[in-house]
Amino acid sequence: DSGVTQTPKHLITATGQRVTLRCSPRSGDLSVYWYQQSLDQGLQFLIHYYNGEERAKGNILERFSAQQFPDLHSELNLSSLELGDSALYFCASSRSGGLDTGELFFGEGSRLTVL
Amino acid sequence: TQLLEQSPQFLSIQEGENLTVYCNSSSVFSSLQWYRQEPGEGPVLLVTVVTGGEVKKLKRLTFQFGDARKDSSLHITAAQPGDTGLYLCAGLTLRDYKLSFGAGTTVTVRA
């Protein structure tokens, strides 16, 4: 158990819909990262938040947005869903905001299926 | 195009055999990590290497960071079925403070 909690574990929805994925980092961790993992793309970095502020953006679509709340939990919002958005979405946390060594602790992921 | 290229993509071996997985790039990394991911779970950190030429051993796993800090290898001795999983390397580049993952090597160890 990494200490990172993600909900829901599985989500099935239709094209055009909007979903919210939730992540609680390990106790004491200030940084939250979101990754998307699909069979053909591997693990792709989406966005990084540190103590409530956006730190870095990766290959995140404009239809996607995220935020980190004062209690440090984070939400990833995916809207106008397309079939190609079907993937595993992982949240990871780390102690610092600087990615000092790149050591991340991953949750178990949320599997999104868009029909 | 992946910043980190992992090879081979798939590896299936018999229990007791040795295996090596490679992670290569043209970029220089300040640190490199190896993770293992099992089906239905998130990646789990195995090791971090930070110094060029560094070798770290974790029981039957040996990790090496290239002298130029552009590549790494993971060697497993006497593999066991419990070693089965997706092995991912990840490199941290300080110029953009970005952690990039390779596509992974799927290792299957048959009993």
Structure description:
Chain A has strands at residues 5-7, 10-13, 19-24, 31-38, 42-50, 53-57, 64-68, 74-78, 87-94, 105-106, 110-114. Chain A is mainly β. Chain A is globular, with a radius of gyration of 13 Å. Chain A starts with a strand and ends with a strand. In chain A, β5 (42-50) and β6 (53-57) form a beta hairpin. Chain B has 111 residues and is mostly beta strands. Chain B has strands at residues 5-7, 10-14, 19-24, 31-37, 44-49, 55-58, 61-65, 71-76, 85-93, 98-101, 105-110. In chain B, the strands form two sheets. In chain B, strands 2, 4, 5, 9, 10 and 11 form a six-stranded mixed sheet that branches. In chain B, strands 1-3-8-7-6 form a five-stranded antiparallel sheet, with no helix packed on it. In chain B, β9 and β10 form a beta hairpin. Chain A binds chain B through residues 2, 4, 33, 35, 42-45, 55-56, 58, 90, 92, 98-99, 101-109, and chain B through 2, 31-33, 35, 40-45, 48, 50, 88, 90-92, 96-104.
Task: State the order of secondary-structure elements of chain B, H for helix, E for strand.
Answer: EEEEEEEEEEE
Q: What is the chain-wise order of helices and strands of chain A?
A: EEEEEEEEEEE
Biggest chain contact: A-B, 24 and 26 residues
Number of strands of chain A: 11
Shape of chain B: globular
Largest sheet of chain B: 6 strands, mixed
Share of helical residues of chain B: under 10%
Q: Beta-sheet strand percentage of chain B? A: over 45%
List the uncertain runs of chain B.
none
Count of helices of chain B? 0
Shape designation of chain A: globular
Secondary structure category of chain A: mainly beta
Q: For this entry, what is the oligomeric state of its chains?
A: heterodimer
Distance between the termini of chain A: 31 Å
Uncertain runs of chain A with pLDDT below 50, 5 residues or more? none
